[in-house]
Amino acid sequence: MPAEGEAPGRADGRATGGSSPPPGARGVATAYWTTGPGTGELRSEPLRAPGDGEALVETLHTGVSRGSELLVHRGGVPARVADLMRAPFGVGDLRAPTPEAPVKYGYLAVGVVAEGPPDLLGRTVFGLHPHQDRFVVPAAALVPVPDGVPPRRAVLAGAVETALNALWDAAPRLGDRVAVVGAGMIGCSVAALLRSFPLGRLQVLEPDPARAAVAASLGVNVVAPDDAADGCDLVLHCSATGAGLSRGLELLGDEGELVELSWYGDRDVSVALGADFHARRLVVRASQVGAVSASRRARRTTRERLALALELLRDDALDALVPVSVPLAELPAALVALAAGELDAPCLVVDHPLADPPLADPPLADPEDRPA
Which of 261, 262, 240, 236 is nearest to 248 (CA)? Predict the structure, then answer.
């Protein structure tokens, strides 16, 4: 594998194609690399043989985490948090990807163990790895996908783990009135988990008709932001917009709490705190999946949290979040389309060579259906 910041393949930035792998390697892997703001490409690189305690995974599917991956795609990661936001097996400097020093980023990978410890051999596993058709990682970094969870749905493990951690942070109580603002991949994952809680009220706020339809398919009450009920005990904000954050605060009852799941990257966000925010003693707190919630940290490891998220993916309704996919060869163009709003899916699935054919052609977003 290349050292951090070192470009794989040819010096001119193109894939190595038919170059011979070094002794002890397991052939060539193909991975997606961000090469500059708004640009990326597939590159070939030698794949080393797994050592003791490691596994070679043949990838079936990866998922695109729209929030963080599109920030990396457009070069929107602030320098002060670039190191904090690194993915476990990512490569490169998130602050300044270039063709000579590209970035390999991503963390939603599902595949089959082709080489490794006997207890994992042949098993379908989830790992926090970028978009790459074959990869080698420590076996301890892989978590088996439970029976009854299709590999395509398993790419949602990272989103459901984020939602699980947020609910550990938020601690909803019996009879609570709760609102989830934003019906993207994270918002829908939060709503899917909350619908099993004994709440007094649960509403999902979403202005986009297509996203609202996805959330409604989960069996939750979806409303336009202006139609949401106020007096909430708890609001979970997932829209990554200042308007959504402001509306979430408006919906809180006195001394209510808003849990912020959005990452805005280098974007400034304005929110009105000069009206009744202070007088009504409202609370805003962040939830981020990089560490286990403080309420569970003494009793849960990150691996246990991820394993629980995978168990929660037995819910067939969550297939609504992975409706479309593209082949790995089309990922560079798909990311450009996602960033431009021309392609819309809660979680875009990337099918690797061993995967089944794509479920459907990816839908292009109708500009007339997008919120202003």
Answer: 236
Q: For the residues 109-135, what does the mean pLDDT come to?
A: 97
> CA-CA distance, 97 to 293, in Å (whole number)?
31
Look at residue 295 in the predicted model and tell me its pLDDT.
Answer: 95
Reported as a single tens digit per residue, the pLDDT across 329-362 is 999 999 999 999 898 889 999 999 987 655 544 4
- The residue assigned the tokens 């297509």 is 210
Gap between the Cα atoms of 353 and 333, Å rounded: 18
Beta strands in 277-331 (DSSP E): 283-286, 325-327
Q: Which residues contact 129 (CB under 8 A, 6 or more apart)?
A: 57, 59, 62, 87, 88, 89, 106, 107, 109, 135, 137
Q: What is the pLDDT of residues 67-77, one digit of tens each?
A: 889 888 988 88
Residues in the chain: 372
Residues 237/216/317/293 CA torsion (nearest 10 deg): 10
Task: Name the amino acid, one letter, at 101.
Answer: A
Q: Which residues pair with 348 in a beta bridge?
A: 64
CA distance 341 to 18: 36
